[in-house]
Each structure stands twice: as structure tokens, then as C-alpha cells.
Amino acid sequence: MAKYLKKDDLGSWLKELGETYKVIAPVEEGDAVVFRRLTDERTLRIDRQATQGPKGVLFPACEELVSFKYVKDPENPEKTKVEVKETVEAEPTLIFGARPCDARGFDVFDGAFTKCAVKDNYYMARREQAIVVSLACTKTETTCFCNWVGGSPDGTGGSDVLLTPVTGGYLVEAVTDKGEALMGGKLLSDADDARQAEAKKLLQEAKDSLREAPDFDCMPEQLYALFDNMDFWEKQSAKCISCGACTYLCPTCHCFNITDEQQGKEGSRIRSWDNCMSHMFTNEASGHNPRPTKAYRLKNRVGHKFCYFPDMHDGHIACVGCGRCIKSCPVALDIREVVTAAKECRLPEEETSDD
Ligand code: SF4
Ligand code: SF4
User: Fold this and answer.
1) Tens digits of per-residue pLDDT, 238-251?
2) What is the pLDDT of residues 38-69, one digit of tens each?
3) Ligand number nearest to the C-alpha of 309
4) 0.90 cut: is pTM over it?
5) Which is the closest atom of ligand 2 to the Cα of 301?
6) Which terminus of the chain, N or C, has less C-beta within 10 A?
7) How many whole angstroms from 342 Cα to the centroid of ligand 2?
8) Ligand 1 proximity of 277 Cβ (cutoff 6 Å)
9) Long-range contacts of 85-91 (CB under 8 A, 24+ apart)
10) In the chain, what are the domain boundaries?
């Protein structure tokens, strides 16, 4: 049964939830909107897409994996042992105000971190303790294309609860059993038919406002076929300046680097986000770089999202169409144009057979 929450009660509802969970929500930070712990001093901003999604809540930009210490063996002073302590930090956390595309980003992370042969204990511990309360999009932006990649303005993938803005408040719907646990609060009343009908109408309008989705069924094959066509990738990547904004803001990018930081006999093994658009990403110790130019790097980024990841994860495209990489790219490189060009690119054998 859908519930209704008055707009004026949203703050009290989040405060109530804050007694059980660490509540993380989109808040103002300068000109940006970013996900931070919600406090009385911070201003909640759910009227626009956050500059960066909530990926850092479950996959922090920088985290200690283990701490280590060199200790001498008193029985054998010549020998030194290393004591290692794993640092897995997780607590009940509520992610509020994620957009459906951002929540679907967690589905991609689940594929990469929990469904492969090697599981990521750090991510899994945080994911298990997290509950995601998403906010459906009744307004879309020109950069949104969730409908191209299997999503929609009211998509529920990765969410536990979905809120839809309606007149005077929100329609509140549980998506998972975890989400059902939030439906009993005294601030929630049963939603009447009129509110449910309004939500449906607003969401249909939002869906209709999106550009028509191309058929991407041919994409993995098409991208494999373009693998050695470096002229195509040179052209697509010509204006890229390798700044990495697209990767850091992307809710599905999950590459990381691991480094050791040591002072004296003690240190930490740190994991930090990495950026596949940087020339250093695949630079090998020998100096050889298998992705030596921007063209190789863009080919990898697009190929990973629309070809290699879907191949390994039941066709699941590793882009959720949030449009942040389009909005924030300083040279306006548009991933929609790249995949459309790849889809429409005539392959040499097709040209030959037509002639
Ligand atoms: S944001 Fe634009 S310029 Fe920067 S690395 Fe990405 S595609 Fe290149
Ligand atoms: S590739 Fe761009 S549009 Fe797709 S999920 Fe990442 S930031 Fe969003």
C-alpha cells in the first residue's frame, strides 16, 4: 500500500530515521550539491540533480583497507613480521534522495563487487547495512537518457523505497522488504487514489519528455567490430582533454588504485578512485602503455560500459544515463553521440558487400 508524506513533515521524518540510521542526503556545498551526512547546519537540496551521486557512500573516494605494522620477532631478532589489521567500517546508513539512475548505479556496483569470483568485503559490508530511499524524477533534464539504457524516471533498481513528488508532499512506496521497514512511521498516512493518479500522470509526462531511445541490441557486436578502427576512436576523442571529470562523477565508474602509505614501521594500505581517462591509468613500470592515446582510453571507457560489462553481466549496460559526464565535460564530449556514432558506423565488410 502506497503511503503519503506531507512536504512539511519531510524534515521530521528524516530526523526520526536518523535515530536508527546515519542519514546521507544531497546538500548544498558552495555551488554544488553533494551527498553528505544530513545535519541541522546543512541545507537539503532535492530540487535538482546532485552534482555528484551517492556512489561514495558505498564506495568511498579514499579508504583504508588494512593497517600494518612491522614487528621484530623476539625469538629471532633477525626476522621481522608484519602485523596486518583489516579495516571494514560499516554502520546502518540511509541514503536519501538518490535519483533512480543513481540507485541503478548500485546495481552495477553489485555486479562488479559482489557477483564476481572475488568479492569485495568492504563494499559488501556497507551495502548490507545501507537502505536506499530514492526520489523519482517528475522533471527531466536535456542531458538525461536513462530510457536509452534500461532505466526510467521512476525506475526502482537499486532502491528500497521510492518517493514521488506530488502536490503538497510525496507518494512513498516500498520496493524491497528492507524498504517495508520504513513504511510504519506515524508521519506516513495511506495515499488516496487521487495522489496515486497524480504521481502516475507526472511520471508519464517525465517519461514522454525524454528523447526516444535507440535500439542498442547490436551494441556489443558493433563495439567489438570497431575495436581496431582507431580512425573512429581518434575522431570521437579528438576534443577530450583527459581531465577525468566524467569518471569521477559517474555513478557506475568503479576503477580504483591501491597504494601503501608508511611512516616508520607503521602504515596503511589505501584504496582510492582511479580514472581510466588518464594516460597514467595503464602506464606500466617498464614505460610501456597499452592505452597510449586518448582514443584508446575513450574506446575502453565506452567499450566497458556498453560492451564488456554487459557481456559479463547478463546484458546489463554499465551506464545509467544520468548525463553527468555530458553536463560536466569541459569540452562537451557527449557519450550519447559516441554510442550513436558507433551504432551507425558502417563496418568495412558491410561497405564491401553493399558495393
Ligand atoms: S570529462 Fe570530457 S574532457 Fe574530461 S576526460 Fe571526460 S571526456 Fe575527456
Ligand atoms: S557514463 Fe555518463 S551518463 Fe552514463 S552513468 Fe556515467 S556519468 Fe552517467
Assistant:
1) 999 999 999 999 99
2) 999 999 999 999 999 999 999 999 999 999 99
3) 2
4) yes
5) 1
6) C
7) 17
8) yes
9) 86/121, 87/63, 88/121, 88/122, 88/125, 89/63, 89/125, 89/126, 90/125, 90/126, 90/128, 90/129, 91/22, 91/129
10) 1-59+92-211, 214-355
